[in-house]
Amino acid sequence: MSFQGPEEYDYLFKIVLIGDSGVGKSNLLSRFTRNEFNLESKSTIGVEFATRSIVVEGKKLKAQIWDTAGQERFRAITSAYYRGAVGAMLVYDIAKHATFENIDRWLKELRDHADDNIVVLLVGNKTDLRHLRAVMSEDAAEYADRNNLIFIETSALDSTNVEHAFQQCLNEVYKRVADRHFSNVNIGQTTALPTTNLQSTILEKKFCCNS
Amino acid sequence: DKAKLDKFQSLMLTPSLDLDELKKLSWSGVPSKFRPIVWKLLCGYLPAAQDRQGIILDKKRQEYHNYLEQYYSTRHQEIHQETHRQIQIDLPRMCPSIPLFQQETVQQIFERVLYIWAIRHPASGYVQGMNDLMTPFFVVFLNEYISSTIDTFKVDTLSRSDLQKLEADCYWCLSKLLDGIQDNYTFAQPGIQTRINQLKDLVSRIDATLQRHLEQHRVEYIQFTFRWMNNLLMRELPLRCIVRLWDTYLSEQDGFASFHLYVCAAFLTKFSTQLQRERDFHSLMMLLQNLPTQHWNDEEVTMILAEAYKLKFSFSGAPRHF
Prior knowledge:
The structure holds two protein chains of two kinds.
Chain A: E1 11-19, H1 25-34, E2 47-56, E3 59-68, H2 75-78, E4 87-93, H3 97-101, H4 103-113, E5 119-125, H5 137-146, E6 150-153, H6 162-178
Parallel strand pairs in A: 1-3, 1-4, 4-5, 5-6
Antiparallel strand pairs in A: 2-3
Chain B: H1 2-13, H2 19-27, H3 35-42, H4 50-71, H5 78-90, H6 104-120, H7 130-142, H8 160-180, H9 190-206, H10 208-216, H11 221-230, H12 239-251, H13 255-270, H14 272-277, H15 281-289, H16 298-315
């Protein structure tokens, strides 16, 4: 194996995927980062991690995505992963109403542990299960509106909107970063980030405001 | 090998079996032919006195059957339905690469065992990953009834009474295992948090270079070893290796808790060179989540175990280690 330097990027954004168990978080992640879908992928234990870079307005944005386990018991551990996140995808299953009802709890979880300016997407996954739909798009859209969330429906299975969902999330994060919304995170620092149990949050490599 | 088989054979024939002797012999691996009975003995499920074994087995199997009668119907009650639902979500996703586990009969057995265990242990309840921990017992005990390869074996071809025995045996042995590590699964999972800290401490003593490398790139142990603890390395190693690993765990005092820690340390440091070649957080994490063990066999496990044994010998008496 030859030496490879760290990959270059302009911004590093940390995104978390949260929501009930079995709503398809891991498949959204694998669809976005590897273009893969697995009907019977193993349950996520703790957190799993993947990255993908996209280009927005000529800037290379690297998304560092943390996929979390859905079960309540892991919450004490996984909530630590919200620290430093600038985007969150709050996922439910359009064919399981209970997973939509729990969105309130997940949102509270985010409000308690994440940055106030975090970009939150409400993601209704599994739109391929048309005949089993239990959550109406209008209801979810209205909920999203009320709570200031971006709403989108996806299917990790047939790829519908997956790319679009992540793009939208990253675009919005980028906008907020450009407008300096994230006062609490460490914009403009490439080194000496506080040691948290997480990787650093936003790194502006080329546009360091200290320079 | 033949000599080992003979030793097991003669030990098994003694009317009151010497458990310490059995542990010594089993530490370095149990021949598959003897594994079902040896595991039951090592779990403390089967008594060492041969003349009592039949009676105890009957009694325990009946007891499990009674639990089923008493509790299984509660799964639709409001306070229990979340537990049941979680188990049901996890079962179809269990060991996707092994066809055996996709069979309906098998999943129903798992569902009942895990559900009964969960509602009898409300302090932890069912936690994702416990389903994985039942799979080694299931494949090992299934071997009692069949001689062909089990990956594709049709479980429905077994008699009803054999299936019931198998199910009860899995329940009791899984219970014994979980009893020893219940603090891994109670609120905030304190057992796991403690052991992750111990692991970090241990690795910093035995492989300071690796430790510095991980720190330099801000890789935190909780990010990759949580799963190692919660699922006892079952996501990191092929099932055949786990079965071999458990021969030793079951032969160790407190194998699934403290000895597991040394195994994790040996496992991590085995990839030290490879990890040190990775030069950023992302590639380190990707490697740590997908360590190349798919082709591992007994040989690799034996090496890890030997290393873990050395670590235990050197550190178990040291301050800050138990």
